[in-house]
Amino acid sequence: QVQLVESGGGSVQTGGSLRLSCVASGETFSSATAGWFRQAPGKERDFVAAISRGGGTTYYADSVKGRFTISRDNAKNTVYLQMNNLKPEDTAVYYCAADLGSSAQRLSERIGTMDYWGKGTLVTVSS
Asked: In 3D, which of 126, 127, 118 has the Cα closest to residue 39?
C-alpha cells in the first residue's frame, strides 16, 4: 500500500510560483510511476505531468509545458511539481498520483484506474 500526502498549495498572483510536494509512505513508491493531476471547479480531473520510476523521463500537458517541472527523490519518497509563471487558469485542486503498472507516457490514461491518489492541495492564482 502507498499513501500520498500533498503539500505546498496556496494563493499567488499571476506570474508567481509555487512548489508542490507529495510524500509517499510505503516501500513500493520507487517502483511506481508518479504524476500530478488537477481539477478546477466544475470541471473534470485533468493530467498535468508524469515522471518515470527512476525520474529520467517526464511528460507534460501542453497547457503547462515550459512552466511546470516534475521531479522526484526516491530516497525521500517524494515527488515535486515546480510551478512557475502561474496563470488564473491554473487554479485547481492538485492531486498526486502513483501507479505501479503504468509507464509515464501512459499515466494520463489511468485517471479511472490509478492505483493511488492523494487527497489534493488547492492552488489559487489571482489576476
From this structure: 118
**What are the b/e assignments for 82-117, b being 16+ CB within 10 Å?**
ebeebeeebbbbbbbbbbeebebeebbebeeebbbb
Cross-strand partners of 100: none
Q: Are 115 and 2 in contact (CB under 8 A)?
A: yes
pLDDT reported for residue 57: 97
Residues 6 or more apart whose CB falls under 8 angstroms from that of 31 comprise 53, 100
Which of 117, 123, 97 is closest to 108 using CA atoms? 97
SS3 33: strand
In the predicted structure, residue 93 carries a pLDDT above the cut 90:
yes
Please report the pLDDT score of residue 2 as a whole number. 85
State which H helix or E strand residue 116 sits in.
strand 116-117
C-alpha grid cell, residue 75: 530516497
What pLDDT sits at residue 26? 80
- What gap in Å lies between CA 111 and CA 60, rounded to an integer? 15
At 76, list the grid cell.
525521500
